Amino acid sequence: MIRNALIKRQRVIQKIRQFFEQQKVLEVQTLTLLNTPTSDVYIDSISSTVNIDIGMQSTQYLHTSPELEMKKLLAQGSGDIYQVCQVFRDNEYGERNSNEFTLLEYYRLGFDIHQLMDDMVSLLQVLGIKDKVQWFSYAQVFSQYADIDILNTDLDTLKIFAEKLGLSADFSWIEELQMLLFVHLVEPKLKELPLCFIYDYPKSQSALAKVEGQVVHRFELYLDGIEVANGYDELQTKSEYEQVFMHETAKRKQLGKFIPPVDVSFLSKLDNPLPQCAGVAIGINRLLTQIS
Amino acid sequence: MANYSTSQFKNALKLMLDGNPCSIVNNEIVKPGKGQVFNRVKFKDLITGKTLIKTFKSGDFLEGADVMELDLQYLYNDGSAWNFMDLDSFEQYAIDSTAMSDTKGYLVEQDMCTVTLWNDNPISVIPLNHVILEVLDTDPGLKGDTVGTGGKPATMNTGVVVQVPLFVSIGDKVKVDTRTNEYAGRV
């Protein structure tokens, strides 16, 4: 049994490597142990104190995703790159979450999210996932499954909606309530769809993706209702990243969470902005459960 | 009653929801890649028996439900209530028909039952998985018939109707599975 599972995992990763080799996407390996923890509001880094005995004590953080380190390479002219690596996150536990898991992260220069989603469909087909692909914008799924005009409904109106359903409504930020309603009303319905992309999230959920009008060019992949991947049209300039980090830090402060120092080593690499590119992180452990 | 936070949620924990005591059937932790942790919880309403799903954010609290399960012996029906006794304390409980729901057809005097109390009031009675009932009425029996030929309805001494094999006759004692209302053998 264990050997079969290991063989399956090896085959899937081999096929991923072949897929990228054919497309001339370069495999890279970036640092796992970083000087700066993630500033992502809802992702917590695991830390460790190192070099105590040699009198050079410092705190290091296991990466929660290789994103910023890979973006340093992109900014320096690496071209298309991918990485398969273990990542580590604190406070993640459950049926589908754990403190350590495998990510495939890749960036394609000149792609927008729609080109990247198409590229992912080719990758999934190579891996044996050949189900009918369905695409929905975030607004479409909310309209279809919850009858909510999610892009044009404000926080107070969403609170009334949540209260009617007997759900928590005690939120400071609209994105949290949008996510709660998504988890409660939309996600269970996605179980009926074998392969589904949801794209164009509300700008309140921008993360590190490009905003255009009311929406942000971000997508997620769901296989049988399970969130497997999260991709963006990537922000390019130093000032855009600085703004996001400041915003995240402010939210962490408000939540009483640990305030990470700004990742100066990342920002210093962005004097040359990133090339226009789209990138995605795919959870390999979750993906493997969907491959027979 | 104590409050329970989402981190204390576990299967079979009894909580108050929309004014009714409910029992957690399943507690799924959902962590969107870019969002906070939610608990998607499936509950069984202990009064209506209905299943409901609610989603909580991590750190939410719910009030515990003062629910207790007792093993009681069924004594008798006095016309308006069903009477039970705790064999350890000899305390008696009179339960009216709302809490009895479908179980009254399986109550046999002297049998043990699981009675759920909420705020000291009985809200449900679960009989033994198998009970012995007497056939009060059914079509005449046929000799030589065996189990598995479809059978016939039989009314038991408690009023419940069970599909039985053709050879079962009036006055026979049969074993009935109370979870499925199926014939489980002749005694």
From TrEMBL, chain A:
GO BP field: lysyl-tRNA aminoacylation
Residues covered by the Aminoacyl-tRNA synthetase class II (D/K/N) domain: 3-290
A GO cellular component annotation in the UniProt record: cytosol
Molecular function GO labels: ATP binding; lysine-tRNA ligase activity; tRNA binding
InterPro entries with a match to the protein in the record: Aa-tRNA-synt_II, aa-tRNA-synth_II/BPL/LPL, EpmA
Keywords in alphabetical order: ATP-binding, Ligase, Nucleotide-binding
Name the UniProt record assigns to this protein: EF-P lysine aminoacylase GenX
From TrEMBL, chain B:
Protein biosynthesis in keyword set: yes
Subcellular localization(s) per the UniProt record: Cytoplasm
Pfam families in the record: EFP, EFP_N, Elong-fact-P_C
Domain Translation elongation factor P/YeiP central: 69-123
GO molecular function, one term: translation elongation factor activity
Tagged with keyword Chaperone: no
CDD domains: S1_EF-P_repeat_1 (cd04470), S1_EF-P_repeat_2 (cd05794)
InterPro entries: Elong-fact-P_C, NA-bd_OB-fold, Rib_uL2_dom2, Transl_elong_fac_P/YeiP, Transl_elong_KOW-like, Transl_elong_P/YeiP_cen, Transl_elong_P/YeiP_CS, Transl_elongation_fac_P
Transmembrane domains' residue ranges: none
Pathway stated in the Swiss-Prot or TrEMBL entry: Protein biosynthesis; polypeptide chain elongation
Main localization (coarse): cytoplasm
Keywords per UniProt: Cytoplasm, Elongation factor, Hydroxylation, Protein biosynthesis
Alphabetical GO biological process terms: peptide biosynthetic process
Listed GO CC annotations: cytosol
Post-translational modification comment from the UniProt entry: May be beta-lysylated on the epsilon-amino group of Lys-34 by the combined action of EpmA and EpmB, and then hydroxylated on the C5 position of the same residue by EpmC (if this protein is present). Lysylation is critical for the stimulatory effect of EF-P on peptide-bond formation. The lysylation moiety may extend toward the peptidyltransferase center and stabilize the terminal 3-CCA end of the tRNA. Hydroxylation of the C5 position on Lys-34 may allow additional potential stabilizing hydrogen-bond interactions with the P-tRNA.
PROSITE patterns per the UniProt record, alphabetical: EFP
Annotated positions of the N6-(3,6-diaminohexanoyl)-5-hydroxylysine modification: 34
Domain annotation Elongation factor P C-terminal: ranges: 131-186
Family: Belongs to the elongation factor P family.
Annotated function: Involved in peptide bond synthesis. Alleviates ribosome stalling that occurs when 3 or more consecutive Pro residues or the sequence PPG is present in a protein, possibly by augmenting the peptidyl transferase activity of the ribosome. Modification of Lys-34 is required for alleviation.
Name of this chain's protein: Elongation factor P
Primary gene name: efp
